[in-house]
Amino acid sequence: MKFETYVTQSRRRLLRYAVVLTNDPELAQDVVQEVLLRAGQRWHKIGRLDEPHAYVRRMLTNEVVSWHRKWGRVEARPAPDLDRAIHDPTDVVDRRETILRELSRLPARQRAAIVLRYFEDLTDAQIAEVFGCRAATVRIHIHRAMKTLRVDTTAAALQVIR
Amino acid sequence: MFTETELREAMQHSAARADDLIAAEQPPSAPSRPSQAVDLYVPIDLVPEAGRERRRWLPLAAAAVVVAVAGGGLFLAAKPAHHSPTSPQKGVAAAAGRPSSAAVAAPRTAITITNLVTIPGTNDYTLTTGTETLNAPAGFGGTQVMALPAGGFDPAKALTDPHPVTVNGTNGYAGKALIYLIDPNDPGQASKAGRPRNTLAWRAGDGSWLVLQNIMADGDGFVDVPVATLIHEASQLKVQASPAPLRSGYRARWLPAGLTLTSALASVGHPALSLTLTAGRKSIDIQLSTVATNVVPLGGAGTASKHIPGYWISVIGTGYDRATAQRVLDGLDLSRLHGPQSGWWTFDQAVNG
Questions:
Q1: Which residues touch B106 (CB under 8 Å, ≥6 apart)?
Q2: Is the four-CA dihedral B262, B175, A43, A17 of positive or negative sign?
Q3: Among B15, B65, B76, whose Cβ lies nearest the Cβ of A16?
Q4: Cβ–Cβ of B72/A4 closer than 8 Å?
Q5: Farthest CA pair distance, chain B
C-alpha cells in the first residue's frame, strides 16, 4: 500500500482515535501529523507490514502515552460544547461530559486501554500487542480504569472470568 | 454509575470533533511545486517553553513540509498555526541572525553505521546502528534481507523453535519470528502487530548474520512462505560480504556539533540518499530525492530545501532552527553528484567534509 493511499483511507480514523485519546483536538492534530510524518519516512518498511494501520496506531498510542509521561499532567482543553454551563434537562449530555472528563483524567495507559477497547473495539490480546505487554496486564489497566470511571463492570468482569 | 453503552457513546461523540477539524481544513491553494502534494507540519523545536508545553507548528506557508506524492493530491494538514502570538517563533527570529557560533568549529562527526554486505541487483539499503536491511532484488518476491554483525544476533533468542538448516553449504537456522522483531532499531518493537512467520538465518562469509523473511502481505494477511522456499531464495542471493562501502553523492561541509550519523537510506549506482544525524532528541535529516515521493520542506524554521537539475535536496532540522538547516544546506558539496559513483564520498567523508 502506498503512503498516500494509507493517508487517504486512514487519516480520519487516526484523527478520531487521537481526539478521543487526548480529549484535545489540537493536540490530536499535532500528534497525528507527527506520527504520519514519521510513518511516511519509514513507509518503505511499514507499507509492507500485514497491518500498516495497526503499526501506525501503535505509533500514535505510544506517542500520546509518552507525551503525557514527558510533560506530566497536562490539562486537556475540552471542546466548547463540553464546557458549556447550560443545564441539560435530560441529563444525557451532562453524563456524557462527566464521563469524558473522567476519561481524560485517567493515567495515560489506562485511558489508552479503554479507548482501544471501547472505541477501537480491540481485544485484550490486540491491545497487549499495542502496548507490548501481556493481555493480563491490559485487563488490569481496564479493570482499574472502569472502577475509576464508575462504569458498571459486571459484563466486563464476566468476560475476564471467561 | 455509568454503563458501557454510555462510555461508547461518549467516545463516539468526542470523536466527532475530528470530523469538525477535517471539515475546517482548506485544500492547498496553487502549490508552487509538484502539483500533487501532501502537507505535513514539522515541529519548530522540541524545547518546552513556560506555560502549556506542547509542540508548536509553523504556519502552512512558512514551514510546511511537502511530501510529494505520485498522485492523489492529498491534503494532510491545513491547520492554522496556533502558537501563541506572545511566544516568539524562535526559528524565524533566528533565521534573520547568524547560526550559533558554538558550532563553527564542529568536532568530527561520529558514525555508527556501515554496510555489512552487498547484494548485486539490490538498490535499496537501509542502514541503522547495528543493522542493514536490504530489499531483495527483483524476482525474489517480497523477501527482505537483514544483515547483522556477527555478535548482534542470536538465533536461539530471535527465532521460535529454531532448527538447523543448510543454505548453500552454510549452516543456518529456520524458525518463526515476528517481522522486524530482530531489528534492535525498531522503535518500541512496534511491528509486533502481525503473526510470527517463517524466518531463515544464516551466516555470510565474514560471520555476519543474514536473516531472510517474506514481508509481503496479500488481501488475507501475511504470506507465510515455506522454509524450503526461503532456503531456495537465500541460495540464489549473491551476497558479497565485507563489500566496498556505500557512498554518498554529496558531502556536508558544515554540520552542528555533537551529531552522530545513525541512519542512511542508500542505493548502489544511484544517488538517492537520505542521511540522519542525531544528537539526543535533535536530528538533522539530509534528503536527496529524484522522484516525488520524499519529504521536501518548503522552507521555514528547522527546514531548508532547494532544487537543482534532477534533484530536490532538503534539510530537516528537528530541534534546530531554520538558520541552522539553511547553513547545512548551503554547505552541501554537490559537485560530484552528477558524476560517476566512483567519485562519490564515503559516509565518513560525507559527514566530515
A1: B254, B255, B256, B257
A2: negative
A3: B15
A4: yes
A5: 73
Cα–chain center distance at B291: 16
| Amino acid code (one letter) for B260 | T
Whether the CB-CB separation of B165 and B172 falls below 8 Å is answered with: yes
| A48–B55 C-beta distance less than 8 A | no
> Looking at the predicted structure, is the pLDDT value of residue A72 above 70?
no
Task: Say if residues B66 and B316 touch (Cβ distance below 8 Å).
Answer: no
* ipTM at complex level: 0.81
Q: SS3 for B352?
A: coil
Per DSSP, the residues of B29-78 read PS-SS-SSEEEEE-BS-----SSS----B--HHHHEEEEE-SSS------
Which grid coordinates are listed for B105? Answer: 568549529
Nearest to A74 by CA among A100, A104, A109: A104
Q: B294, B307 in Cβ contact below 8 A?
A: no
Question: Lowest-confidence range among A110-114, B173-177, B205-209?
Answer: B205-209
Residue of A13, A45, A159 to mutate when probing chain B, most B C-beta within 10 A: A45
Cα gap B195→B218, rounded to integer Å: 14
The count of other CB atoms within 10 Å of the CB of residue A89 is 8
The DSSP symbol for A29 reads H
User: Could you give the dihedral angle defined by the CA atoms of residues B12, B13, B16 and B20, in that order, rounded to the nearest 10 degrees?
Assistant: -170
Of A7, A25, A100, nearest to B74 by CB-CB distance is: A7
Give the separation between CA B68 and CA B37, rounded to whole angstroms.
4
Sort out which chain B residues have CB atoms less than 8 A from A74's CB and list them: 52-54
If asked whether residues A68 and A117 sit together in one domain, one would say: no
Nearest to B210 by CA among B275, B124, B143: B143
Distance from CA of B348 to the nearest CA of A (A): 23
Per the CB < 8 Å rule, is B7 touching A149? yes
User: Could you give the domains of chain B?
Assistant: 101-113+244-351 (3.30.200.100), 117-241 (no CATH)
Q: Point out the residue among B1, B65, B194 whose CB comes nearest to the CB of A152.
A: B1
The tens digit of pLDDT for each residue in B22-57 reads: 777 644 333 333 333 334 433 333 222 323 333 333
Q: Which residues of B touch A152 (CB under 8 A)?
A: 1-4
Q: What is the CATH number of the domain that holds A108?
A: 1.10.10.10
Residue with cell 565518513: B348
Number of domains in chain A: 2
Domain encompassing residue A13: 1-77
**pTM recorded for the entire structure:** 0.50
Say yes or no for a CB contact (<8 Å) between B7 and A45.
Answer: no
